[in-house]
Structure to design on (197 residues):
């Protein structure tokens, strides 16, 4: 019985991913979930009390697996600069994943405060992966720099998702170049200022 319930729950989450990727939060309705999974609408409520609960569950399932993929990419890089590059490239590669497209469609404004906080905490896992590399590069405020790097990555992800005029490879390479130049030039300028001072 428990295994059957888990299979049904997994099917509902997969249907939710597809609906979010196809039509955003508006497409994620319990009747649509019922149709996609072949369940009665009342049965969907046995698994999730609201759309926010579905979204929270998606975050709980998908964010850790993304973080693990990014962490694995960062772990095999040898130098701090290569770790930053791996961090950026891994996230941009995940932008094409249907799981990512689904969660990118979520408007945090439609969720309660607890759900928004859990999503923010999950995103924080990503930023933490690059802080040590930035510290090793010599950044005085690696947490701040990591947040700024993440902002650049998120802007690139949005551009990839919108189907920008540029080829995806061009967007990826431009983003990597921008981040690497930014994180290394900032350290060089800080070191030069320290010597001059």
């Amino acid at each position: 019985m428990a295994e059957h319930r888990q299979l049904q729950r997994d099917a509902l989450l997969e249907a939710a991913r597809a609906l979010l990727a196809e039509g955003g939060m508006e497409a994620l309705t319990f009747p649509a979930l019922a149709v996609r999974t072949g369940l009665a609408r009342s049965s969907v409520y046995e698994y999730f009390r609201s759309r926010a609960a579905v979204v929270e569950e998606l975050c709980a399932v998908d964010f850790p697996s993304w973080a693990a993929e990014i962490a694995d990419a960062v772990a095999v890089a040898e130098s701090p600069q290569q770790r930053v590059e791996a961090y950026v490239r891994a996230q941009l590669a995940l932008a094409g994943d249907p799981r990512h497209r689904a969660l990118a469609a979520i408007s945090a404004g439609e969720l309660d405060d607890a759900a928004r906080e859990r999503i923010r905490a999950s995103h924080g896992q990503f930023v933490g992966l690059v802080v040590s590399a930035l510290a090793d590069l010599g950044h005085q405020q690696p947490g701040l720099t990591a947040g700024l790097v993440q902002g650049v990555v998120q802007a690139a992800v949005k551009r990839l998702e919108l189907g920008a005029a540029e080829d995806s490879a061009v967007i990826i390479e431009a983003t990597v170049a921008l981040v690497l130049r930014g994180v290394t030039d900032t350290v060089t300028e800080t070191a030069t200022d320290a010597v001059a001072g």
